[in-house]
Amino acid sequence: MGGRQSAMNSGSRPGKNRSHRSWEKKVAEGATLVYLDEVGFSLKGVRRRTWSTRGVTPLVTLPANWEKLSTIGAITSDGRFFQQTKSGAIRSGDVIRFFQHLLRHVQGEIVVVLDDAGIHRAKATQAFVETHERLSLVFLPPYAPELNPIELVWAYVKRNVLGNFCARSVSELKAKLVTAWQRVRYIDLPRQLMNANLCRYQ
To answer: What residue ranges are annotated as transmembrane (predicted)?
Structure first.
């Protein structure tokens, strides 16, 4: 993990009265490392290559609206996957609820790696973290999605589950995403990504 240490802002942990242990030391001592991110899915669909009669361009009619679903999700250093999906955009309150979800399901100390989006830096979010000793945040540098392996979960879902799928309604899209999350867990994708990430930085 040493190759990633310099890229992460380990000094951005909130909480004035927290232990001065670094996030690296916490993980070395058994804390669970959690990679968190948000993603949006719209009714516009994800175009992929497909087959068609020569000379005939395949056409798909899509609903003319901009409704979307947003997911906040995380993968853990022991290969688990958590997600919550809702209509509209993810707000700071949703981030706090997701943190509460993590605290219920992950034992011991938790080090969350995430980008520095406004909803992660919001006063309400920071206040919540400050009141939970088990929870620490490590912020990624700007424009560095390659440092967050959960981005590959979103890419997999869009490419292999939602590719060329055209939902006619938000409920249909939500049902398809349920299938996507089941597939992510079935193929043990989070564990594969975490193992690959560990090898990358050894």
So the answer is: none
